[in-house]
Amino acid sequence: MGSPLGAGCLELDSRKAEPAWAAREENKKSGRQLDIKLHRKPLFYNKSMEGYGMNWKSFLLGAAVGFTAAIATKELLDPSRSTSPERVLADVKERVKKHGRIYGSWIVMKPEAYVKDELTYEVYRGGVTRILDGKRELFEFVADSKTGTILELNLLSEIKQSD
């Protein structure tokens, strides 16, 4: 006999209008055995899952989302990844142009070994020319290829610009 109260409810003893657990206590005293049935459905029950197992569309969507999240996490946390030379050059130009107008810039696209204070780095070398107070200033820089950190920024020369 199914429970009239729905899923997760105890059946009522048909002889008395009391819960089955109360009837069980009474039956312990009298020595009779009474079966108590629980009618429960799974905690996350979906009626559309009946008879079909798992929905393949949902499974594939979940697998695709998981795969994409794993790739994105790997890219963000990968320590061997290096900063692009274009990004390094843009950062250097951003710092130099705070004090004047940029006239030109260049960068070597292939990283090279560089030793500073007995430490070896893989670096990008490049240069920036800016105009400040009618003078061209030529800067050369060395930046770490892994982090983009500027290790050196040196003023090479100043050239008076003729108008």
Question: How is this structure best described in words?
Answer:
This protein has 163 residues and is of the alpha+beta class. The chain folds into 2 domains: 58 residues, no CATH class; 76 residues, Nuclear Transport Factor 2, Chain: A (Roll), CATH 3.10.450. Strands 1, 2, 3, 4 and 5 form a 5-stranded antiparallel sheet that branches. Strand 4 and strand 5 form a beta hairpin. The longest helix is centred in the middle third of the chain and has 22 residues. The termini are far apart. The N terminus is likely disordered.
> If you consult CATH, what is the topology of the largest domain?
Nuclear Transport Factor 2, Chain: A
What is the number of beta strands?
5
The total tally of domains equals 2
What is the helix content?
25-40%
Q: Catalogue the unreliable spans.
A: 1-14
Strand count, sense and barrel status of the largest sheet are: 5 strands, antiparallel
Distance between the termini: 102 Å
Instruction: Supply the number of helical segments.
Output: 3
How much of the residues is beta strand, in percent? 25-35%
CATH class of the largest domain: Alpha Beta
The backbone outline, from C-alpha atoms, is: elongated
Order of helices and strands: HHHEEEEE
**If you average the pLDDT, what whole number results?**
76
Q: Radius of gyration in whole Å, from Cα?
A: 38 Å
CATH architecture classification of the largest domain? Roll
The secondary structure category is alpha+beta
